[in-house]
């Protein structure tokens, strides 16, 4: 049996891929980019207002040819993880008090939902904004939990199209993980991200 | 604002649920907690989940968790000294954080 596997290659499993990270790090932009590269119309709404994604957005039946290997996946764009939600923060973006409180309540539900999904994904991309210092506790907590559950995780050091990006800092903080500097916005290095996903499939 | 220091020994005696209840009770009472050692990843995520359940937009917006471990790399510090600071959300701001130095402003 082993020689057959060697001959034909191990069958790649379908990834149930959770895209996790803090708010406004580019998770939805990345999910949209993956959908587009798979020939599917992106549906995620990107906004500068934090917590735009407040429910888990699922894109199923995605398929991508990566150097002759077929990567099959369901992508889950998760609400941004946070340890606090202050509705007043949303007022700065022109929302009314009523809208801000509603958004805060939905964001809270979204965080709980995203955490629950940690039990149902079989791979994850932890998206970190490479223009910020990577010591945010959300990143450490997220990656620690994925490790503890044995879920393979790739760290996407996003926003490298911006001049202030310092993806090397993320590599220094997480030396035991694969860190891939990308720009979900421009598509830079997405090929490297897909190669890494094929490896863990 | 009050600051409570809690030793590793005191934490060791508590189950996860008891730790979370104690932390949230203190933080909601406007207390900054300094724990000797770290909460496990599982305990941290449970703390976040329970925090979300208890948020009230008008009286409790959540928490800040700051992990201060004397190591330059995540995952390399299992046996080194560390502190975990948990504070009411929005009440502390990290001014500077390096593996050897942590500066926070309390408002």
Could you explain how this protein is built, in words?
The complex is a heterodimer of chains A (201) and B (107). With 201 residues, chain A is an alpha/beta fold. Chain A has one domain: P-loop containing nucleotide triphosphate hydrolases (Rossmann fold, 3-Layer(aba) Sandwich). Chain A has helices at 2-8, 27-37, 87-91, 97-116, 137-149, 167-173, 190-200, and strands at residues 15-21, 57-66, 69-77, 123-129, 153-158, 178-181. A six-stranded mixed sheet of chain A has the order 2-3-1-4-5-6, sandwiched between helices. Chain A is globular, with a radius of gyration of 17 Å. Chain B has 107 residues and is α+β, with helices and mostly antiparallel strands. Chain B has one domain: Translation Initiation Factor IF3. Chain B has a four-stranded mixed sheet with strand order 1-2-4-3. Chain B has a two-stranded antiparallel sheet with strand order 5-6. In chain B, a hairpin with a 2-residue loop joins strand 5 and strand 6. Chain B is globular. Chain B starts with a strand and ends with a strand.
């Amino acid at each position: 049996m082993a020689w057959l596997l060697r001959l034909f290659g191990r069958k790649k499993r379908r990834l149930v891929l959770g895209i996790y990270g803090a708010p406004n790090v580019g998770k939805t932009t990345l999910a949209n980019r993956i959908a587009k590269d798979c020939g599917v119309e992106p549906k995620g709404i990107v906004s500068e207002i934090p917590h735009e994604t407040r429910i888990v957005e699922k894109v199923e039946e995605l398929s991508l040819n990566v150097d002759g290997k077929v990567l099959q996946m369901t992508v889950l764009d998760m609400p941004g993880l946070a340890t606090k939600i202050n509705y007043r923060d949303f007022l700065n973006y022109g929302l009314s008090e009523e809208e801000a409180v509603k958004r805060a309540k939905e964001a809270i539900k979204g965080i709980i939902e995203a955490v629950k999904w940690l039990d149902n994904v079989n791979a994850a991309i932890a998206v970190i904004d490479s223009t910020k210092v990577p010591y945010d506790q959300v990143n450490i907590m997220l990656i620690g939990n994925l490790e503890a559950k044995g879920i393979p995780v790739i760290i996407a050091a996003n926003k490298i199209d911006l001049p202030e990006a310092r993806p090397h800092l993320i590599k220094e903080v997480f030396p035991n993980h694969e860190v891939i500097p990308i720009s979900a916005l421009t598509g830079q290095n997405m090929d490297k991200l897909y190669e890494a996903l094929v490896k863990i499939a | 604002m009050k600051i409570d220091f809690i030793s590793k020994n005191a934490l060791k005696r508590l189950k996860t649920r008891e730790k979370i209840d104690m932390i949230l009770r203190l933080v909601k009472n406007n207390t900054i907690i300094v724990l000797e050692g770290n909460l496990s990843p599982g305990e941290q995520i449970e703390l976040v989940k329970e925090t979300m359940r208890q948020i009230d937009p008008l009286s409790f917006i959540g928490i800040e968790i700051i992990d201060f471990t004397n190591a330059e790399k995540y995952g390399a510090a299992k046996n080194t000294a560390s502190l975990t600071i948990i504070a009411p959300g929005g009440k502390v701001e990290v001014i500077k954080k390096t593996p050897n130095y942590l500066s926070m402003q309390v408002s």
